[in-house]
Design goal:
The chain is α/β, with parallel strands linked by helices. The protein has a single domain, classed as 3-Layer(aba) Sandwich (Rossmann fold). Helix content is 34%, strand content 21%. Helix 1 crosses helix 5 and helix 2 crosses helix 4.
C-alpha cells in the first residue's frame, strides 16, 4: 500500500554554502506549507534516498546543482516519466548519483508515482554556511512554487 502523504526531501550539506539549498528550503516549507507533509534532509547518498521514497506516492526533491547555468537558476523536472539529466544528478563523489538512483528505482518499479525535482544552481560550494544572494532568492522562489504545486495535490 502506498503512503499518499507528500514527502519533501532536501538534499545537501549545510556546511557547504550554496549546497545547503535543499535543507534550507525544507526549513522554510516546514513553517509555511499548508498541507501535511513529511520532511527529510539527506546528504545525497542515493541508496538512502531510494530507501526514503520507498512506498511513497508523491515526492519532491530539492537539491543544489552545478549544471552550467548562473547561480540561482531554478531547474524543474517532473521525473515521473523523464530521466534526470546526469549533470543535475551527480550529488555524490562516487560513480552512483541521484540520476542513477532515479533510473534504478524506475527499472525496479519502485519510483514514486509522482516525483518532482527542483534543482537550484549553486555558485559557492566552499566550506562555510554563507549562502549566496542569488541562491537565497531561488530558495524563496522554490518555496513559493512548491506551496502552489501542493495546492494541486488535493
Amino acid at each position: 500500500m502506498l503512503d499518499t502523504k507528500l514527502l519533501i526531501i532536501g538534499i545537501g550539506n549545510r556546511m557547504r554554502c550554496d549546497d545547503s539549498a535543499g535543507p534550507e528550503t525544507i526549513d522554510i516549507l516546514k513553517e509555511k506549507l499548508s498541507i501535511e507533509a513529511d520532511f527529510l534532509e539527506e546528504r545525497g547518498e542515493p541508496a538512502s534516498i531510494m530507501e526514503s521514497w520507498k512506498g511513497r506516492d508523491k515526492v519532491i526533491l530539492i537539491d543544489c546543482v552545478i549544471a552550467g547555468k548562473p547561480p540561482g537558476h531554478i531547474h524543474y523536472l517532473d521525473l515521473s516519466n523523464t530521466p534526470l539529466p546526469d549533470e543535475m544528478g551527480k550529488t555524490s563523489s562516487h560513480a552512483f548519483g541521484l540520476a542513477e538512483a532515479v533510473e534504478l528505482s524506475r527499472a525496479m518499479k519502485k519510483l514514486p508515482k509522482k516525483l518532482f525535482f527542483y534543482g537550484i544552481e549553486g555558485g559557492k560550494i566552499d566550506i562555510g554556511k554563507e549562502i549566496s544572494p542569488a541562491v537565497k532568492t531561488a530558495i524563496n522562489t522554490v518555496t513559493e512554487r512548491i506551496q502552489k504545486q501542493c495546492m494541486n495535490f488535493h
